[in-house]
Amino acid sequence: MYYRDQHVALIVPCYNEEAAIEAVVHGFREAMPEIDVYVFDNNSTDRTSQVAANAGAKVFSVSLPGKGNVVRRMFADVDADIYVMVDGDATYDASAVRSLVDKLIDNNLDMVVGCRETKEEIAEEAYRRGHQWGNFMLTQSVVKIFGGNFTDMLSGYRAFTRRYAKSFPALSNGFEIETELTVHALELRMPYGEVMTVYGARPEGSVSKLSTYRDGWRILKTIGRLYISERPFAFFGICGLILALISILLGVPLLTEYLRNGLVPRLPTAVLAASIMMSAALSFVCGLILDNVTRGRHEMKRLVYLAIPLPCTKTGRSSMDEKR
Fold this sequence. Notes:
Blueprint: E1 8-14, H1 21-31, E2 36-41, H2 48-54, E3 58-61, H3 67-77, E4 82-85, H4 97-106, E5 111-117, H5 123-126, H6 129-146, E6 158-161, H7 162-167, H8 177-187, E7 192-198, H9 212-230, H10 232-261, H11 267-307, H12 319-323
Parallel strand pairs: 1-2, 1-4, 2-3, 5-7
Antiparallel strand pairs: 4-6, 5-6
């Protein structure tokens, strides 16, 4: 079955979600009967796979631990025109799936993010203020570094086109994958959008797998890693500038003394200042070289992205349908 001539797949990463996965499958099937549901079980120790299969989902197993590894397998193993990714904890609003997919199709976007908003009476239980503050800080960090206008970078509820899914390398291992998904869209200058969705509490018996400080630190490290790899000239240029300023502060008094009486009073300091200035120059050159390497990677990613057919042909039928 197709929704607006598109084959839509719901891809659900899961780890020990026996208490919630049935509600997720039935909720999305009720909201969009045309959707195909794929559940990817990441080494669950409970009955997640059995419950998902009994609910009518197609179940896959992923042995490598971590959400990033699951997303890598989902994008590789599922073939569809549009992918809707949602966490298997039943906290996201299934009825919003049509809004996400419609916006993706109508506005010719490659990614739509379901931004979370909670009702005041369950806000502390569903989406604690500490998590909201951390999400805001991390999202703003990405926006300041890479641009864009995201309001909820860490949402696990997203819709993607086939072009996005098949051009996404998925290098992260864990929950930091949402950061990589966001930066990938920004670096390839893909059109994206956001839809506000209701975010609720987990059902009784379901336990969160998030570790506030550990996962926050991993996301922060991922932002730093992406900054170095995607903005090498800026990073190494700043490092070079700092080193150059230190060298100047150390060397100017020595140079002044030398010009006044022809003597170098502190030779070790002079050697240190010269060495630091050489390191500054080396950092600047490394930034230039790596910037060209990064441009080459972006060009290759863009070519892969452009090689994938559009979601719809001129006749209105999906490219996947034509293949069938």
